[in-house]
Target: Nucleolar protein 11
Amino acid sequence: MAALYEGYTLCGLVPTQDLSNSCIRGIEQERDSDHVLVTDSTRSVTLYKVSDQKPLGSWTVKQGQTLTCSAVFNSQTKEYVAVSDNKMIRIWKEEDILLDKAFKATVSSDIWRVQSVNGGEPVVLFQRGAVRLLDSLLSAPQQPIEEVLAQEEAIRWSTNIVAETQQFVIFTTEQKGDNFLYLQGLNPNTLQRYRLEGEEPGLIPLSFSASYRDKHICLLYLYPNGHVYQSVVPVRGLGTEEGTHALPLPRSLQMALPVGEGLLEAATALVLDEAHVAVVGVPHPSAGAGKDFLCIWNTNFQTLQAGKEMAGKIYGQLWCYSNKLFIPHGKTLSVIPFVCPKSSLASALGKLRQAKTEAPASVPSWNNILHEEKAQPSRTVETRKTVCWITTAPVEDVQKEVEGLLSRSDMQDSQPSVGQLVSILVSRSLSDPAFYTPSTLAQLVQTQCLCHSVCPDFVLLALERKDYFLCQLCLQFFPDIPEAVTCACLKAFISMPDVDAEKASLDPDSISFMETVTSRERGQVGLQNGFNSTSLNEESSDGVSGGDAITEDEEKPSTRSEQNCPVGLHKAVLLNEVLQTAYSDSFLLPHLKDLSSQHVVLFLQYLQFLYLKYSQDAFPQTHGLRSPSLAQIMDWVCLVLDAHFTVLVMTPEAKGLLLNLHNYVKSQVRLVSELGKIESSLQALHQMKVKKDVGQYSIEVIELF
Model:
């Protein structure tokens, strides 16, 4: 029977003033099953690699502009297409940085949506029902657009489907309480309009979902009273009677879902295959009031086959790509893998004895979502007993029991068991101040079977207990730590006294790196990348644009202090872990603004110290030691300055720091300028023919012009 596996967080949701809106305008599959485009309801498009749960790129329109339909991927040209302010089509490539500098074209009529199928050309559907292929529209953007819909008729939903060899644009409309279905065929162009049968007075469909099977287009739609209907349209013969005259469209009742008291408000029914439907926003028949679930129903046997409670508010939105459900809830966009094997009546009723269904192999192993095919009763029973037992056992007994379980060879790959153990341990530690098992939790993290999504309170527990070694392990092994948690770690690390930090036992490799860095604090060393202390002194009097010059006496002590690490050894190790954590700029910046000016200055001073050490000619190679890269250091400098520049300008203590950072940039600019001057000479040198017979020793004079 169908199954929903353990989900994981793809990204957080940006809060909006409309609490009933998830802020997501659409999700579209990109180049393959592991990449999706997420368009928010305001200004941004973000490309995610689903298995890594991190963004690969993000593009934003200017303030005051709005994206009015979800972005799509043109698989023919490897470009992205979106629409802003209803009429402006934007096209860009993945390597483009600024969306405003990409291709733009303004059309003559408002666009409802741009739709694309893999291997096909994108199609533009206008708000008044007209359809154009993208290339045809861009050849003459201001071409007149006809009105297909009647007065007071508006589009409510749309999609596109490839049926046999022809692409169809499918959309539904509403006019004075009546609902219509349009099927627009492309190459050859055909248009057919159908009238949906009415439900109770005042009820209109909440959601639509379309699929193609057995040479028919099947439309599934959900009403507020819980009734799920299906209408079937044969593909053949669609073009024989073209026109806008509405034909009656028969329907059949697929299910009558339980709605409890009242009517459904925000709900969706999504076709998964010929026998299964995913439903969100509909009450679970066995759960109490006030709980929201994602469920899979079998339409053939009218049975609920899988259900998962979703924390936070449900917005009635659901997308499905490659056996993964994408659902926004609360402040999170979650990915829920699922399977829907062919079912018999026995399996639909839960009476069939069969091995547990194997989860999709494409799901990343560290997400606690693999289920093994072969049943292993002994391990399952033992784990279940252990989970029940640790809720009341003493700390020492819990540690011994968990160590025994982890030492078993068949436990190393049992991620559901590890996730369950961690959840119980963290929950008990939060509720019982006297209970805490740091060594056990560290062992569980080092199994690499966990991620933040499995136990969102894990890192916060480590911060609350000031277990900095456990914090370090989480930052190293959890690939999906949210930006808010990353900033919470940064705030805790930067504000802690150095004395407390030195008491923590941290990763030896990380400590070795910082010992190497700090051991070279003394002595005059040359700097690379176009910067040295002499150039700093020479440029210090220039100041910044519009600022006061700084005197030589003021500069020299500052320069000497830069050679010393402004924080203790262990605190530096913890800050380095933050620098190496993955993040998204747009989600990280709001949380960085919570840092105080004192902590910001200290953090920038440490980043400046690292930059200077990395720029030294004599800086030793640290292969094999865990350490941040120079690019990561500079990225954090930019982020912190973006978040706090106004405050820093008004802070007297930060004046010298800002001037130094300004001078670093000037040094880099000068270096690039000097390299540009000799670029042609270097190219000529590279193109020169090398003499084959030069003997054992020779001197050659090369004249560069």
Residues 359 and 370 are 5 Å apart (CA to CA).
